[in-house]
Write a structure and sequence with these properties.
The chain is α+β, with helices and mostly antiparallel strands and 511 residues long. The chain has two domains: 373 residues; 75 residues, Sandwich (Immunoglobulin-like), CATH 2.60.40. 11% of the residues lie in helices and 24% in strands. The chain has six helices and 26 strands. The strands form seven sheets. It has an eleven-stranded mixed sheet, sandwiched between helices. The chain has a four-stranded mixed sheet with strand order 3-10-9-6, with no helix packed on it. Helix 3 packs across helix 4. The chain starts with 5 loop residues before the first strand and ends in a 5-residue tail after the last helix. The N terminus is likely disordered.
Length: 511
């Protein structure tokens, strides 16, 4: 039996916006306007203003003076080295350093503390990452200190043929729920089961310098049935060997290790997640990128479940959640974001709907927040200044604050939000797709918009690729008329979802 799923899909590029939660009467913490004060003061700001980094780490710094992010950097004193473009390399020993940023007549310093080490990798990552090109994956391990216990953690690294040391970016794909190295398809960097494309296949078609793909494996539940990320607001369960994973730090260590060992551009680190919510990969992407925003330039989110179980202050409010009462911190630094939240309405079986629900907090599904709240979360730090809403005269929010008979929030007629002028030149683009959708639009066209990856081959049982160039806007081919073929106010133009995300990444490195 085929079930039609009403989809409203968004593409969101994060800069900051000034929207409030729809249908929320709760007073929210720290209005974005409070963050705008230092920006309008005309003082040079350094990101981060201070830092603690591991030995041998290679980390980016950025600055801002009004709308300018152009600074000349230097090492004033202490250990390590600093490039003029703002990249600090820590030595193989502890110590402190003072760095300096200059923009015109203004200067600002930051203090760096070097301590601790990046965990040592074993497997293919310890022998030169020799597996390269289409179909090749480097299988790697490290012993990682968790919140409770120590665990043998695993990940994969895919290096495309067009990788260039010193110039290539890094894309971290937070997978889960069947993507693990021990899962059915045994390929953390591969597509979901029964699909034939995915990030690795797509990146093999990208011109030089093609980015490296890093795919961490989540911790496994105690019954080894599936992977689970330890995200804020999760349900109650336990992991193998009774550990409590520190996934935020695990992902951070992988970024530091991979950027260092493959000589990647530290100002071009991006993070994304799989489409579905199983395994909580989108939620982990939100949390890991927010905590590690000093390393991450932009993110792509494929589902809005990241704020599941939280109230308007991003505080966990589902009583059954083990971290009830804890609040999700805002990103440490401005982030650019592309986001495609999931289904609009699936009755009580869905907690990823774009406009939330009004189910009781004691129910199995508690999803008060909306895509408008997602925008607000990032805008708190980015503080965008200009906005375009399309079609005109449809309002400035994507959700009405009203609900259908099943309790699902209802959308407005707004199809496009483009927010620009954020801190560090970050941006937010939101594109809602018209029409319905079926399945996961994971299978992708290649860089040139051709189906060379086998997406639409019925013999492989692959899900149909979502071609954004169509104008049908129906059940099998959702679309957005402002995005198709790159027309409209979109720097994130592309042929299919992964194409949109990567082309957005290319235009949003750290300055």
């Amino acid at each position: 039996m085929h079930v039609r799923l009403q989809f409203s899909i968004f593409v969101l590029a994060v800069l900051s916006t000034s929207h409030t939660a729809i249908g929320q009467n709760t007073k929210t913490r720290n209005a974005p306007a409070q963050n705008a004060a230092s920006r309008s003061s005309g003082k040079l700001t350094v990101y981060p203003s201070s830092a603690t980094v591991e030995q041998t780490a290679v980390v980016p710094f950025s600055c801002e003076l009004g709308t300018s992010s152009a600074c000349s950097w230097s090492l004033v004193s202490g250990v390590g080295t600093m490039t003029r473009s703002g990249v600090y390399t820590a030595p193989n020993n502890p110590g402190t350093a003072v760095i300096r940023a200059v923009n015109g007549s203004q200067a600002q310093t930051a203090t760096i503390t070097v301590r601790g080490t990046i965990p040592r990798a074993t497997g293919d990552c310890a022998t030169g990452y020799r597996k390269r090109g289409p179909g090749q994956r480097n299988d790697c391990r490290m012993s990682h200190q968790e919140i409770v216990g120590t665990a043998d953690r695993r990940w994969e690294v895919h290096i495309p043929t067009n990788y260039v040391a010193g110039r290539s970016a890094l894309i971290v794909n937070i997978g889960g729920a069947g993507h693990g190295l021990n899962a059915t398809n045994g390929n953390a960097c591969g597509p979901p089961t029964n699909e034939v494309a995915g990030w690795a296949s797509y990146l093999d078609t990208v011109p030089s310098p093609a980015p490296v793909l890093l795919c961490p494996e989540a911790a496994w539940r105690d019954n080894r049935s599936d992977e689970r990320w330890n995200w804020l607001g999760r349900n109650r369960f336990t992991w193998v060997n009774r550990i409590t994973p520190n996934d935020v730090d695990f992902i951070r260590q992988l970024v530091l290790l991979t950027v260092r060992d493959l000589h990647l551009d530290p100002k071009k680190v991006y993070m994304t997640s799989d489409w579905i919510a199983d395994g909580y990969m989108t939620a982990m992407t939100i949390q890991a990128s927010a905590a590690n925003a000093d390393l991450v330039a932009a993110i792509a989110l494929n589902n809005e479940s990241s704020f599941n179980n939280m109230d308007a202050n991003f505080t966990v409010r589902r009583p059954k959640a083990p971290e009830y009462g804890k609040t999700l911190p805002y990103p440490k630094q401005p982030l650019s974001v592309v986001m495609t939240p999931g289904a609009y309405t699936l009755g009580k079986q869905n907690y990823a709907n774009i406009c939330g629900d009004n189910f009781p907090s004691t129910s199995g599904w508690y999803h008060r927040l909306t895509v408008d709240d997602s925008i607000r979360y990032y805008d708190h730090v980015d503080v965008t200044t200009t906005h375009i809403f399309l079609p005109k005269h449809t309002g400035k929010t994507f959700c009405t604050g009203t609900f259908d008979r099943s309790g699902n929030g209802l959308p407005t007629g707004l199809m496009v939000l483009k927010s620009s002028g954020g801190r560090l030149r970050t941006e937010i683009y939101v594109y809602r797709f018209e029409g319905n959708g079926t399945g996961t639009p994971w299978c992708s066209f290649d860089w040139n918009g051709n189906d060379t990856l086998g997406c639409n081959n019925p013999s492989t049982h692959s899900k149909i690729a979502l071609d954004l160039r169509n104008s049908t806007c129906d059940w099998t081919k959702p679309c957005n008329r402002y995005l198709d073929t790159g027309k409209g106010p979109a720097s994130a133009s592309g042929y299919s979802p992964l194409d949109v995300y990567y082309k957005f990444f290319v235009k949003h490195p750290k300055p």
